[in-house]
User: Fold these one by one.
Assistant:
Number 1:
Amino acid sequence: MSSDRPLDSARGRDKGLPRRVLGSEAARGLFVDEVKLTLLDHQSLDWGRIHRAVYLLHQHLRYQYPAPISNLRHRLMIVPPESYGDQQRVAYHVEVSDVPAFSTTRRDRFGNHLIEVRARKVAHAIDFESWVLVRRAGVQPHRLPSRALSDPRFLDPRPLTHPDSILLATARKLAADGATGVQLAHRINDWVYAAMRYTPGTTDVSTSAGEALTLGRGVCQDYAHIMLALCRLCGLPARYVSGHLLGEGGPHAWVEVLVPRPDSPREAVALPLDPTHGREADLNYLTIAVGRDYADVTPTSGTFIGSSPGRLLARKRLGLATAELAAEMATGGEGTISA
């Protein structure tokens, strides 16, 4: 049985009340005092000793419009799935307020938790606020069936990862000595990290991998798209990951490379690599959604009828609520650090 709090029916939802609630109303009590909660300083922890950790993610998105809009159709991908690898969603609560709206949730084709919101009219603004508790049981191998290794969704190019001549030449060079699997995945990750310079404001959500590589600058999304393009050119299935990294103010992106599991021919493993930081993703990372590229996992997007675009104001708080230490060989004991 899942420990996740069930979806609440939100009495009166179909009547278009000012506040739409997703998740459990009971779960909201877990987050009432969230603003007062002192979270752990993740930088002071000895991560090598952490066995399990519980994360609190609080996000507030507000769209403001200079004039009334109508027929809003909005998509949110800001809550992680119930279970993903070693990650378990404990509870969540989402509110849509300030306007009469109808909200539903479903799983998309990649298993992501998708929230869809509809509103007939928005006079000035609409708010989306979410609270999520997630537990991670150490960094455990994320096992997949072996058929994932031949999934065309993670092997075929997309507009954002379509290879140009530079990417093609780079892929040939990286795989020239016959390296495969984990070794090649790490090599590509290291190469992208060294080839790019993190520079906000030089690219946007429509910038392709080839364009970003030509610039030599970009943000985590660009690093991930370049790595995806190179992995797929080298025959490595790979997928885009949207999530969060402790200590960063905005969302983060990295890559999962799907490789055979050495001790089990019927299974594959999702190897999480972060080309922006040149390392393997660890317990500092929280996964929200996966897809072929950024277009599949956009955290917030939608359409409406109106004369002017809206303005997005966003804030986020991510931190550790508790961290459990692994058993000490010398003492045979375990300990829990709480805020």
Number 2:
Amino acid sequence: MVENHMGGVLGQELHVTVGVTPSQGDLLRGTTALCEGRVGENSVWAVLHREGRRLFPDELFADVFADSGRRSVPPSIVATVMVLQKLNGLSDREAVEAFCFDARWKYACGGLDFDYPGFAHTVLVDMRARLARSGGGFLTRPRSTTRWRPWTRSR
């Protein structure tokens, strides 16, 4: 087994509970006030901001997390970052850096506050591993609310 930069052991099953995305940020500190009116209404940023909680509800990912343990980065945030990462052709490190420093990424993740904490790039690695171990059942199953399946590859 190999240790990562935070002292954790890669490949070891850690007990992590599902995090919960904040429902409303401070209007003076939030990215919503900055981004609304500045990003196009039909831009990926605005669509993910409006529809992200419906597309990626935290509860959808509950079966890939433990019932007790430390809190994870909310999966809806990780899922949104992974979509933006793919669309922008970024590495894990570049995607996390964009989330930390580009207000549009935090806006797309639900209008998070500017000072909402970043996370290690290994969170993206861990989420992909959890999704792969889950068998992908809920990832490819069509949902009644949408036909868009961000985790499947288009051909």
Number 3:
Amino acid sequence: MITTERVIAIFMICWVSSASAITLERVLQTTLEKNPAIQEAKAGLEQATGKRLVFRSIVWPRAEVGVPAGVQAGHRAGESGVKGFGIGRGWLTQTLFDMAVPPSLRRGDVEVLIAQQQLNVTVVEQLHAARLAFYAALYNRSLESIRDEQRQKLQQNVTTQKERFETGLADKSAFTSATVQADELVPQVERAHRAYREAQLKLAEAMAIDPAKSSLPEPEGELEFIPMRVDLASETVAALQRRADLKLARLFVRAANEDQRIIAADYYPAVVGSIPGEYVPVTGIHRQGSTSKTQDFIGSEIREKAAYTWRVIDNGKVGGAVLKARAAREENELTCRKLEANVSRELSRIANDLQAIDARQSSLLLDAVYRHNLAVAEWDRASGRYFQFSDDTAPNVH
């Protein structure tokens, strides 16, 4: 099992006690443990371990065993009758030299690293989605409460204006105006309620909760405004090092480079050593295609030999494959550079949003508080602050 640390460093929530409500920390913890997408990514890590064995198989010897048996009949000078036979055969082959060996070993290791970072990318995406859904639920629940309270006050005003109109103390326009204002809030209350239910469904999806079998999660607490100061320069440098999507993009470049090297290895000779052996329990057994006794099996034997192959004329097969692999590597490099260049712009935009919201903090409007919490969540995502499986824990995922 994996013991996880605190998933998010800063929670913008003021907690209130409730028997059935869930905290943001519990939402993130449950998402980390039960989310279907994260579970699928964990399975992908196990598959990558198997693929690494395939890449490494090029360096291991290969052994084969065969036991042909049958009945020999016919006549040859000095022989007569039918004779049964059985032969034990074995082959042991070992790659002695192949330019594809080093890149294949590295490619297998990169395959596991890619699966680890794909898991981390999925973790960040799912935790971030769960966090945004949690904030959306708090916001729309508070908004529904505010709008409903406003509607009730306006409804009381409608009652008052109606009484004043009936007693002749006010004209009908005041009563009509109060009725219109109260009616306008009804769809707003309904929209806030629907948005709250949608946020609850997203929370349930992230936490792998079946709404048909369990009640929808009730988020605990209320949104709170906590000013946040950021160091854009240092955070940009740190984000370039710790963001999982950037690590994954760099690994794709490494994988494409090793794939190109594996393909280009066909330009060079490959040397393979082999040790075939034969065990014959009887004598006088003819080899297939033999025409004289000198070619027959005369006993058990073991032979050693080495052979090499070298593609002298390519005809474009290897060259074309190398060019295709090079194009894939260059495409991955371009994607990686774009992602790295976008980090600074993204963090700068979020930092500006935080400053703009902080400048209006005296208003303490619900919408501003909600947008502040969203901006903080986006900052944590863009700066790579979400929980990630480390190299030590990833091989133990199950």
